[in-house]
Amino acid sequence: MNATAEIAVRxxxxxxxxxxxxxxxxxxxxxxxxxxxxxxxxxxxxxxNGAGKSTLMKVLSGAYRPDPGGEILIDGxxxxxxxxxxxxxxxxxxxxxxxxxxxxxxxxxxxxxGNEPRRFGVVDRDRRDRRAQEIIERLGVSxxxxxxxxxxxxxxxxxxxxxxxxSTSARIxxxxxxxxxxxxxxxxxxxxxxxxxxxQGIAIIYISHRMEEVYRLADRASVLRDSGYVGTLDRTDLxxxxxxxxxxxxxxxxxxxxxHRPPDAARAVALSVRGMSDGNLLKDCSFDLHxxxxxxxxxxxxxxxxxxxxxxxxxxxxxxxxxxxDGKPITIGSPREALDAGIAYLTEDRKELGLFLxxxxxxxxxxxxxxxxxxxxxxxDFAAGERRAANAITNLSIRTASTRVNAxxxxxxxxQKVLLARLLETEPRVIxxxxxxxxxDVGAKSEIYRLIDSLANRGVAILMISSELPEVVxxxxxxxxxRDGAIAGExxxxxxxxxxxEAIMELATGAPQR
Length: 514
Fold this sequence. Notes:
Elements: H1 3-11, E1 15-24, E2 27-37, E3 42-46, H2 53-61, E4 71-74, E5 77-78, H3 84-89, E6 92-95, H4 107-111, E7 118-119, E8 122-123, H5 125-138, H6 154-167, E9 172-176, H7 184-199, E10 203-207, H8 211-217, E11 220-225, E12 228-234, H9 240-248, E13 269-277, E14 285-290, E15 294-298, H10 305-313, E16 320-325, E17 328-330, H11 335-341, E18 343-346, H12 350-354, H13 361-366, E19 374-375, E20 379-380, H14 382-395, H15 412-425, E21 430-434, H16 442-457, E22 461-465, H17 469-475, E23 478-483, E24 486-492, H18 501-509
Parallel strand pairs: 3-10, 3-11, 6-9, 9-10, 15-22, 15-23, 18-21, 21-22
Antiparallel strand pairs: 1-2, 1-4, 4-5, 7-8, 11-12, 13-14, 13-16, 16-17, 19-20, 23-24
Helix pairs in contact: 5-6, 6-7
């Protein structure tokens, strides 16, 4: 073999997916998609919900069989598709967004579940625990192989999933939105583990809606749109403008929407907050929120942003502080009282605290206004609720087959819009949005930004919490920065200049102001 041929062999991808298509009846979920991954590389897979990312990964994992004409090669050898066991034995492992661990079992039991080492036909527990401990030590963890999974944090459970993949000698690991439920510290730890996996020669396919993660981690990024392959960018070419344009088919300049008029000093104050404290983290928080203003609360995780929002909404008990709505003092001791006063709150955890996943979309949208449909004799006007839900689906472009579909079956972005529809039906004067675009695709983000801008144009006062600085500076009129339970300062736009991300981070971290 000559030198050129040797270089070609070394550079050959460990994974090659060629001309993959997949149809379900009359629906084409994938159309002639090709993707490859090299050993020691993180290859980001980008695209809106419904673009085909999950279908492509299910073809890779063997859960789906591709249509005739497509093939998958592992180190140049064709893979028998449509067989999860074959895919796993060939070193392919998929870590889904919803973790598949058994909390009542130990770390070791989870790692080797269904693949336990045996001796004389009986599970060799000592060998299992010893091998599990060796694997998790490769990841630099602080817990033991004999700890119960129920005692671990979400970030640690994510590492157990990775350890399970390593136990099968995985050479290709797919990570689907791995940081959605992690704290910033857990996310940093995961990124350190990813760097270690790359050094060990493992190819990683990384699916995420968070662009800052892609910029930080990706060696390459491929984009799917409308079930087809759009293109691949090398690390040197990765930037927000190109990625957004490839994913949604329009330029970044049309992504963030801020057509409403920023408030001036003469604009009426909608909500006045004074001296809010909870006796624990929050200390003497005060600010004014104007009608038609988008005011962002920024800060690091744990700074008190959500705690302040919940205190205002009456979800948590305060020990000090007063509120005025449209210049009049109000007392709020519960979320019901807040809603009655005209204050609505979008929780950051839509699945646990917001949606009723097993209930219909129409029931979720109408949940806050059921009293409107009450009729004499204890009856309910179901037709009125259905009409209301149908109008909301149209107005917010919620993608669902009907009002009768369960909310849990919708994509993240459409679930978020169902929650927003519920809030808007209460006709609020003040809306608190806690991480309104978390876990939604870039197209749904753009639609949510447009909705926020439209509400501000109608005079609704909006208090928004976000951990994404580009989002904060893209749609907010003004930013309050929290640190250690207090408002550390305010960032405003100077004449002709946008809000400064650097100024926000300096206040959030306590760095000296330049």
